[in-house]
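Q: Hi! First time doing this. I have a protein sequence and I read that you can turn it into a structure. Is that right? Here it is:
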Amino acid sequence: MARDASGRGRSRRASTARRASAAASAVAVASMIHVMHARASPAAPMTIDEFSERVLMTDEPAIVNFHSPTCPHCRALAPEWALLREEFSERKRSVVVADVDCSTSRDVCEWQKVRAYPTIKFYDDVNGESGEEYRRGATYDALASFVEHFLER
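A: Yes, that's right. Below is the predicted 3D structure, encoded as C-alpha cells:
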C-alpha cells in the first residue's frame, strides 16, 4: 500500500471520503423524503357546507380546481394555478380561486360530479351550483382567458 506524507495509507483516506460522501447522500435523501412527504400531506377536508359557503354563496364568481395529490396532471397544473390565484384574487376583479383536494373531500367531489383530475369549474350567478366545466389547456393564459370570458358577460 502506498503511503502519503502523514504515514497513512491512501486507501484509508479514500475509504473515509467514501463514507463521508455516503453519509451526505443519506442526509440529502432523507431531506428529500421529508419534503416530498410534507408536500403530499393531505389538505384539511372540506364539507359540502363549507364549499357552498366559500364558493356558491359569495358575491364573487369562483373558479375551483378539483384535484388529487397523486395526480401528475394536477401537480403539473399547480404553478399555473398559483399564478392564476395571484393574478385574479389579488390584482384583478375579485374572483375566488379555490382548491378542493378530492382525496380528503370526497363528498364535495361526488356532489360536483368530478370524475377525473384535475377538474376545473367556474361558478357564478349564471352557472349556478353545478358550475361551467373548463376544457382547455393547462396554461395560465388559457385559464385566464376562460375566467375573463365569464367576467365580461
